[in-house]
Design a protein that fits this description.
The complex is a heterodimer of chains A (115) and B (113).
Chain A: E1 3-5, E2 10-14, E3 19-21, E4 24-26, E5 32-39, E6 46-52, E7 59-61, E8 64-69, E9 74-79, E10 88-97, E11 101-105, E12 109-114
Parallel strand pairs in A: 2-12
Antiparallel strand pairs in A: 1-4, 3-9, 5-6, 5-10, 7-8, 8-9, 10-11, 10-12
Chain B: E1 5-7, E2 10-13, E3 19-24, E4 31-37, E5 44-50, E6 53-57, E7 64-68, E8 74-78, E9 87-94, E10 103-104, E11 108-112
Parallel strand pairs in B: 2-11
Antiparallel strand pairs in B: 1-3, 3-8, 4-5, 4-9, 5-6, 7-8, 9-10, 9-11
Classes of the chains: A mainly beta (115), B mainly beta (113).
Chain lengths: 115, 113
């Protein structure tokens, strides 16, 4: 069975603080893909990143960075120098080839960034 | 380049009624997936359509059905609505049925009274 756990329900930080959102996943598949999406109050899910299970290289994109560790089945997301516009719900998701890819989402972490 | 579009944006129905939601995929995409997102939860996979056929299905009853048209657009139908069907329904499009990234539309907010 596949599962994604985002243990942090809500996080509140002050602007310019760094914040890390945790994601732990479970799958028996050797080939799988991990994603992070941002959901602002408007409701639309915005794609942030996709990683495959064979690429453990960490990635940085501006103020965003991702740490993928297969040994701990984690795919954590860090926002450096947070801004008010970063306030949203962030979802971690897993997709694996079990007869077809379907994406399993975590419950999400709501991030509040206060000015 | 048009993104994923969904209609309507909001909908109010009463228990027992039927509803149809519509989705047009992003240009160049041929696969449409539907998700239900209850308040405060992550999206739950309903089903995926590719080449006008249902390819994958999540743990949803037969009251949830869909269709994909030759132009790749899709409809989600829900019969015999229950109060618990109130949610944000998200459509996502991608290319093929493999691991390609899904891009989401703005969703349809359904309220069942």
């Amino acid at each position: 069975a596949q599962k994604v756990t985002q243990a942090q329900t809500e996080i509140s930080v002050v602007e310019k603080e760094d914040v890390t959102l945790d994601c732990v996943y479970e799958t028996r598949d050797t080939t799988y893909y991990l994603f992070w999406y941002k959901q602002p109050p408007s409701g639309e899910l915005v794609f942030l990143i996709r990683r495959n299970s064979f690429d453990e290289q960490n990635e940085i994109s501006g103020r965003y960075s991702w740490n993928f560790q297969k040994s701990t089945s984690s795919f954590n997301f860090t926002i450096t120098a947070s801004q008010v516009v970063d306030s949203a719900v962030y979802f971690c998701a897993l997709s694996a080839d079990n007869g077809g890819f379907k994406t399993i989402f975590g419950a999400g972490t709501r991030l509040f960034v206060k000015a | 380049d048009a993104g994923v579009t969904q209609s309507p944006t909001h909908l109010i129905k009463t228990r027992g009624q039927q509803v149809t939601l519509r989705c047009s995929p992003k240009s160049g995409h041929d696969t449409v997936s539907w998700y239900q997102q209850a308040l405060g939860q992550g999206p739950q996979f309903i089903f995926q359509y590719y080449e006008e056929e249902e390819r994958q299905r999540g743990n949803f009853p037969d009251r949830f059905s869909g269709h994909q048209f030759p132009n790749y657009s899709s409809e989600l139908n829900v019969n015999a609505l229950l109060l618990g069907d109130s949610a944000l329904y998200l459509c996502a499009s991608s290319w093929g049925t493999s691991s390609e990234t899904q891009y989401f539309g703005p969703g349809t907010r359904l309220l069942v009274l």
